[in-house]
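G.,

No rush on this.
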Amino acid sequence: MSATILDGRVVAAAVQEEVAARTAALQERGVMPGLATVLVGDDPASHVYVRNKRRTAEKVGITSYRHDLSASISQHEVASLLDDLSDDPGVHGILLQLPLPGDLDGEAAVMHIDPAKDADGLHPVNLGNLMLDRPGLRPCTPSGALRILDHYGIETEGANVVVVGRSFLVGRPLAVMLGGKDRNATVTLAHSRTTGLKQLCATADILVAAVGHPGMIEGDWVKPGATVIDVGINRTDEGLVGDVDFIEVVEVAGAITPVPGGVGPMTIAMLMSNTITAAEAF
């Protein structure tokens, strides 16, 4: 029996409706939410990502401030722009598209974003607040994955969760969020070099793949009936594929996110949600 498909596009549309309503409420108070996007260089994939984010912002009523920079720009110039945007009262959210090209240091650049305007939720201050269970903007992709679970009524309380992937973008923050007091899952954070990874994955009630290896999670890696969240986005000759072998796993799992159309749309939706949260606190 095939798994239930967890359609991230449906959930993202619901989040966008909520954001549009919150945006309208702010506008009635005279607050015009604004999102500044900063894109450095000519990477085609990055341009597609940022264009989609700008379009979504306009759709939900958020003003989009576009900053496209040459790959030859200096580290100082990037930092100066981010400083200016952080000081701009008309900008409530700032998105710096990563990675930066060439020798530019993305982590150093992020430090110039006001944590209160960090729409990605990846500033060290916001990640620190997450670790300490304090209020703050949360990373978009992990938040989107959790929203999918909530939308489809998949319980995390008491669940055995395995997160494969330890990046600060997804794996590590998602493991913390799932293990928090409002989720109460028991979480194992694994990675591509984990000993006995296949056997470990097969114990999970909820399995999250965020390792960046196309089709790494195969059918016999998955516990029958488990929920599988595929965060991977890998460009291949056959198009976009996830970290999960969808054709095999869909016949084993109880529920699964597709690629594309799963967690990807949620990342953009939660970016909008973070921007409005920042504007509401302005």
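When you get to it, here's the other one too:
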Amino acid sequence: MSDSAPQQNWIGSHQKSSAPYFRHIFQREGKLKSASLAISGLGYHEAWMNGHRVGDHVLDPAQTDYEHRVLYVRHDVTQMILKGPNCIGAILGNGWYHQDRVWSHRKRGEQSDEEGKKTEQRVRGMSYGEPRLMMELELNYEDGRREVVRPDSTTRWSSGPITDNNIYSGEHYDARLELEGWSEPNFNAHLWEGVEQKAPPGGRLEEQTMPPMRKIEKITPQEISPKGEGRYVIDFGQNLSGWVRMSIEAEEGTEITLRYAETVFSDGEINTASTGVFATEVEQIDRYICRGGKVETWEPRFTYHGFRYAEVLGWPGELKLDNITAVVVHTDVPVVGNFACSDQRLNQLHQMALWTHRSNLHGIPEDCPVRERCGWLGDANLVTEYSLWNYDSKSFWEKFLGDIETTRADNGGIPCDIAPGKRCSESDANPDWAAAFIMLPWYLYERSGDPKVFGDHWSGMVQLMAHYENKSDDGILKGGYGDFFDPGSEKIVSHTPQVLSTTLWYFKCSIVMAEMAKVRAEIKSAERYQLKAVQISKALERNFFDRETGSFGSQGANVLALAFGVLPEKEGQIQDALVRDIHERNVHMNVGVMGVRYILEVLTEAGHGELALKLMHQNTYPSFGHLIERGATTLWECWGEIGHDENHGARSLSHPFMGGYDNWFFESLGGIQTDTAHPGFKHFFLKPHPIAGIDWVRCEHEILQGKIESSWRVEKGVFSWNVTVPKGTQATVQLPVSGEEITAMVGRHSYSVDLPSRTS
């Protein structure tokens, strides 16, 4: 395959078409050695060759800021090339490139007239332009000849059966308009029209190197409820992202409508409120018109949905289980982590975190798969670490760092709250959300050992730190979102002042920048950032720490202060204040998404693992158990404040930034911990924390060198532990109770420790 980028030779239809079809005929002349297709269809494309799909990708290519960079995909098509005439084809969908329906206008009454004009200018026109196609086929013959095939004046296009498609609102398909055999060489295309040359989108071409989106698995309905003639509500039993595939035999012209929702009302009717209709002004709806005469199987191509329930309207006869399937669709990141234990609540919460994360991987790390589908930086910061424990997602997050770069390029060097895309594209990110631009490279470096990941973004990170310093006052940095979605209100509230949580992140970023500067051998920079961290620490103590209570004033602030090591000499007091507050609230968390990320690890490291476990078993509001009892199979955007049973407010029911607790399973219960002095797992720590009430834990993490294993069991007061250290690595093993440290070389090792009396 070629290593060079294809030429930016873009074509399109000369008039608007919801999803134009393209075909190009070429001749193969000679014995073929290899053939590769480089293709980018904006917004999304589906490639075909001689009547067959090319590859198994869906929703290609991933979203970017198209005026800065455009991703193309390369396929090996050697086995698909025929002798003689061949046909290469493509279908274009609107995707994000031509998303002109949602977030494209100002809501009336949102701001004053003067401010409103600014907002209207900022959000109008989410579309980058009409869909367009670039494809280049490289043929390498055994006699050494190389031939490049590109669209030209002989390339033809036609409209087809996809009569409407939008990322948010769904896809409409009229099977009566199907073009059977359209991508075969002998198809009669005399009614098709010539293509039009299109201007390049503006961005540089880059090959898509992260895993593509694919159809991952199928889920059969858990329940089908008749709701009247031709109408059914289907419960798939799991909130997911993707679409419905249906199989039907009906008369020509029969129209089937699919409406998607995350939840239902008490009478079983679907409730679309949590999908954000109030903001998008559209529902998730697919429509299919039957061709008739045979069994027809259909699923959409250029949209996806967040849903657990689907309403089917217009179905002829009885809807059966084998007529309907949910197809799970997301970026196909390989699984590298596994956690299971004797506690089924923890297993359930682990799976909920994974389902929520998977449901929000569509080329970018989304906040939710329904209302916004945006790459909010703060959300990414809270998700990246547990993503890396569970999936080989390094290239995914590297791509997202590139997205942050393109947003800051248009914003004076400072990241925006969201990347990529045109929402919030002309305003500085809140400082606590912008911290992701510094933290993500560090997370990736810890696990890969490759300093290039932060070297590529170093100048931008330095600029962001200078921005923080300019905005700060004597070490205090104002602004931000706060701990975000603390319990207590259906609105966004925070028991931790925004200035406090933001300044805590300012401290953490300074520490991380100092460490990265050391790796880069920039000693003066490292000293400067370390000094800045000391100054911020003193400012935090001076302005927010209560010496009498030993507290920063909230669970969230205390958790972040402990996790970041802000006041090492005061940690005992802060731990006591945190534990005291939890007990005063009858063993409940009172934190938002930042506190959720660290609270369990902070408690467990301080010797309060049993309290952490009780928090995870709490079933009354606010708690994860409370959400589970209300039917949650993914993590909600908020704590499900009382009173939302019928409407669930306007909040999403699939928000991965609530899943930061998943790190606890790997780092505290399994005890697998990175060593920042020896990144890339050249050396790592194994420090599990047995907790009364948990009888066994099995934790595995696959790295480049092999599989790390930490599995333990407690029987009759004896802690039995098996560990595996891969070749090319070394581990320091810390035994529970005694704290004795042992150097574990390559191979499998077993340890046994008598535990003191345990209470459940």
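Residues 78 and 600 are 52 Å apart (CA to CA). The domain at 10-208 is CATH 2.60.120.260 (Jelly Rolls).

Enjoy the weekend,
O.
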